[in-house]
Amino acid sequence: MPSGTLLYAQSGGVTAVINATASAVIQSARARRVRVLAARNGILGALREELIDTSKEPIAAIRALAHTPGGAFGSCRVKLKSLKDDRAKYERLLEVFRAHDVRWFLYNGGNDSADTALKVSRLAREFDYPLACVGVPKTVDNDLAVTDCCPGFGSAAKYTAVSVREAALDVAAMADTSTKVFVYEAMGRHAGWLAAAAGLAGNGADEAPHLLLFPERPFDEADFFAKVRATVERVGYCVVVASEGIRTADGGFVADAGGGKDSFGHTQLGGVASHLAGRVKDALGYKVHWALPDYLQRSARHVASKTDLQQAIAVGAAAVDYALAGMNAVMPVIVRTGEAPYRWTVQPAPLSKIANKEKTMPAGFIRRDGYGITDKARRYLEPLIRGEAPPPYGRDGLPQYVALKNVPVRRRLPDFVL
Amino acid sequence: MPSGTLLYAQSGGVTAVINATASAVIQSARARRVRVLAARNGILGALREELIDTSKEPIAAIRALAHTPGGAFGSCRVKLKSLKDDRAKYERLLEVFRAHDVRWFLYNGGNDSADTALKVSRLAREFDYPLACVGVPKTVDNDLAVTDCCPGFGSAAKYTAVSVREAALDVAAMADTSTKVFVYEAMGRHAGWLAAAAGLAGNGADEAPHLLLFPERPFDEADFFAKVRATVERVGYCVVVASEGIRTADGGFVADAGGGKDSFGHTQLGGVASHLAGRVKDALGYKVHWALPDYLQRSARHVASKTDLQQAIAVGAAAVDYALAGMNAVMPVIVRTGEAPYRWTVQPAPLSKIANKEKTMPAGFIRRDGYGITDKARRYLEPLIRGEAPPPYGRDGLPQYVALKNVPVRRRLPDFVL
């Protein structure tokens, strides 16, 4: 039994399967008799010494985490500066690690979190403290470098493709006398991965979704209007999937999610779907509807991808292996080892190659006209949404998600003002 | 084998299970060797003589309808006036019925469609034409009179409760450093049934959703702000579910779905969720997010309620029975015959008691403070979302929905200009 504590924390936007990673981390560590604490709200909990004793949770609860969306220990949106600029915080971290004998730190998040993990990994050398820091991948945005895909993306992608296929059937049925244009807004501020996944819902020019809008391509309103009109005239209706972060050629966002002010000075929130729907209505006169699933798309554990779930579990287990083997500043990444049949494995990669990088869609994934995905993109995306892994449902017709007790560890240090 | 043709049509907003009703209608009629035509786009297809020969569909396709959302034959939003005011249309209908030997007409829809069915039922007496017209219930709004519930509602209700439960876990995880208030917009222009269903996702004052807003209760913004603030201060975050049709005490909609114009004269679309989120941000300063699932909530066959599916099938089969038995101007309605365990049966009810009526939530279903549901509402709603009935998924990870061939019947009449 290795001596020391493993500290696990969740960071950034949560996903349908980040708790599956947590479940795998805790189960792997328990199997090796390693004590696991979890930080409440990511790195904040480590700084505030708000730690949770996962040994107080029965194994059934830890197993149930694998089918529970959200972030069971709380997450955060916080970025640490460099060791030089934020030295007091790193010293505090070290104090907390020492006080609780933390030898392994697993930070489960996206690009920013990989950066935090990389910085924390430097504590080992800087302060000569025996620490292995492992980043664990997670993001519905699928924009981490090095890894073939990101746990959390496959399930959000499946949600997107399923939802767009279903809504398109609704629109098709009503188009003769009602809505002719439907706009679905997908997450993706800088990368169009989720909008691309919607493309899996149909095939060919006449099957919905008809138009995908990617942040990787400049948005040209006149061209878009022409495409919408041509689709309605040919098919009878038009389903559009827009990435929230599409920009015009001058680099400005088509719609600022933060919104503007109305004539009374009130905040007018709105996204790209509502904006495009309004513009289409004015310019083309069609009846429009739009949907903004927002958090629903990243928490929809009920329609999770089995592939995604398996990968979320695999990176959790690998992270424990790497940490206990003393590997510092690494992240378990997913490597695609076969196309047909799809195969994958998990390997370690240096955090320095992942932190702060952002993987947008390769040009070869976007159709020449900019409004759809290529066969190459389809081959990449399709295995990621494959397989179903529904949660157990109760007699009440609802998924049985677990709420942990989250018993705090007794604090040993004075307060720390962030 | 009864002589004559049964004509089936879908009307109004479609649902996740209206095609299950269609599947039951066609299978029941086939079992009795009755020919079934379907009108394309509801009553419009009957007027335009755009009829579909369902006998051209293999039985596998008809069975697959039971797990396919949308409206397989097309639907419409059209209301006929009285026999007196729209006489030419009724005469045309009669011509079409005669030309295709239509003796039974099944109209599958909500309140407006029940009104159309009632008017068509009068053709029998008015023109001495042997016709049995049966309305078949369907609506996610759950606002039909007489019937205990409406096929389509249970699945939309399940989607709502599941989605709100999942999104709430996301918000809970992030609230410390990110979104504190989340607003989900549910369909329901005049009746708060879907917002009420969200209430099934949690129990007690601290479990999400924390605040439900019903069109049945006047919206008081100051009181709402106070409740939001109190919830955030007590729980750490606040999940709000708003019916699209909430109104202030003076009867005006809180947010017009049609939207207004911005200072450039452009249409500014927006719903109640975006409006409330903006107001909360301005008044209370919290970070807000909101979701507008729109058509997703009524087409989400992937998370359909088994109870709802069974009821959709049962009303389809009953409608064929009633029609072939010569019952005119009736609708099969669902009668609750037991509470624990929940039991139900299907009975005929006169269309005249259903047409144009709207069933809002009983006062006893809304909590005294107006922001939640009572135990009575819970007992009513919970059985309706019970049970899962997922569609088959393909190797590609997507639900396998069927597209019918929809082979048109050769027209026998000249065009009719509507």
TrEMBL record, chains A, B:
Domain Phosphofructokinase stretches: 8-321
Site (Important for catalytic activity and substrate specificity): 112
Major localization listed first in the record, in broad terms: cytoplasm
Co-factor(s): Mg(2+)
Enzyme Commission number(s) of this protein: 2.7.1.90
Gene Ontology MF terms in the entry: 6-phosphofructokinase activity; diphosphate-fructose-6-phosphate 1-phosphotransferase activity; metal ion binding
Activity regulation summary: Non-allosteric.
UniProt-annotated site: Important for catalytic activity, residues: 138
Binding of Mg(2+), residues: 111
GO biological process: fructose 6-phosphate metabolic process
Catalytic activity reported: beta-D-fructose 6-phosphate + diphosphate = beta-D-fructose 1,6-bisphosphate + phosphate + H(+)
Keywords for this protein: Cytoplasm, Glycolysis, Kinase, Magnesium, Metal-binding, Transferase
Entry-linked InterPro entries: ATP_PFK, PFKA, Phosphofructokinase_dom, PKF_sf, PPi-PFK
First-level EC class: transferase
Functional pathway: Carbohydrate degradation; glycolysis; D-glyceraldehyde 3-phosphate and glycerone phosphate from D-glucose: step 3/4
Gene Ontology, cellular component aspect: cytoplasm
Subcellular location: Cytoplasm
Assembly notes: Homodimer.
Function (record text): Catalyzes the phosphorylation of D-fructose 6-phosphate, the first committing step of glycolysis. Uses inorganic phosphate (PPi) as phosphoryl donor instead of ATP like common ATP-dependent phosphofructokinases (ATP-PFKs), which renders the reaction reversible, and can thus function both in glycolysis and gluconeogenesis. Consistently, PPi-PFK can replace the enzymes of both the forward (ATP-PFK) and reverse (fructose-bisphosphatase (FBPase)) reactions.
Full protein name: Pyrophosphate--fructose 6-phosphate 1-phosphotransferase
Species whose genome carries this gene: Lysobacter arseniciresistens ZS79
Protein encoded by which gene: pfp
